[in-house]
């Protein structure tokens, strides 16, 4: 394993063990639940908006290391962003995960989210990594419906 991959794995394990922004956000007006039946990942996202900006967000639930670490890193990445900026980040993240695995992943502009670039080699794990983002989008759209990756 390369040093970079080892470092990435360390970040993922750290966020799985000590998830950031974990818990409930009392009094928030946006939330959604997400479920990945293939793996059994389940999570809820609470979120507070300040105009067009994500003021604060938290997540809770149970899932594999990839989904938990992805939710943790996502909350850190999108806090303080505008809705457009968060959507653009999701696009870039999604592209990194679903691109051609024989090509190096393009993680430009993704910051710490680059730690998931190795996931593209494991298609079944892509849904674990993107579940928190789909759930975030559902929370923002305010539909109140549970999201499923299937
Ligand atoms: Zn999973």
Overview of the structural elements:
The chain has 150 residues and is α+β, with helices and mostly antiparallel strands. The chain is 43% helix and 19% strand. The protein is built from four helices and four strands, in the order H-E-E-E-H-H-H-E. It has a four-stranded mixed β-sheet with strand order 3-2-1-4, covered by helices on one side. The radius of gyration is 14 Å and the shape is globular. The mean pLDDT is 92. Bound molecules: zinc ion. Zinc ion binds at residues 36, 39, 41, 63-64, 66-67, 128.
Topology:
Blueprint: H1 3-17, E1 30-36, E2 41-50, E3 53-62, H2 65-78, H3 83-98, H4 123-141, E4 147-148
Parallel strand pairs: 1-4
Antiparallel strand pairs: 1-2, 2-3
Helix pairs in contact: 1-2, 2-4, 3-4
The structure holds zinc ion.
Zinc ion is lined by residues 36, 39, 41, 63-64, 66-67, 128.
DSSP summary: helix tally = 4
How much of the residues is beta strand, in percent?
15-25%
Amino- and carboxy-terminal Cα gap:
32 Å
**Strand order in the largest sheet:** 3-2-1-4
The 3D shape can be described as globular
Question: Which value, in Å, is the CA radius of gyration?
Answer: 14 Å
Average pLDDT confidence is 92
Return residue spans where pLDDT drops below 50 for at least 5 consecutive residues: none
The arrangement of helices and strands along the chain is: HEEEHHHE
How many β-strand runs? 4
- The secondary structure category is alpha+beta
User: Helix coverage percent of residues?
Assistant: 40-55%
């Amino acid at each position: 394993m390369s040093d970079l991959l080892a470092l990435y794995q360390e970040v993922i394990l750290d966020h799985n063990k000590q998830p950031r922004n974990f818990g409930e956000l009392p009094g928030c007006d946006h939330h959604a639940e997400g479920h990945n039946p293939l793996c059994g990942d389940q999570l809820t996202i609470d979120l507070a908006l300040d105009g067009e900006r994500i003021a604060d967000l938290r997540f809770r639930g149970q899932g594999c290391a990839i989904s938990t670490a992805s939710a943790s890193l996502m909350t850190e990445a999108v806090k303080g962003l505008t809705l457009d900026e968060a959507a653009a980040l999701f696009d870039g993240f999604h592209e990194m995960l679903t691109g051609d695995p024989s090509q190096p992943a393009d993680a430009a502009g993704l910051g710490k989210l680059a730690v998931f670039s190795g996931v593209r080699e494991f298609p079944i794990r892509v849904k674990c990594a993107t579940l928190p983002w789909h759930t975030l989008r559902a929370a923002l759209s305010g539909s109140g419906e549970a999201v499923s990756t299937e």
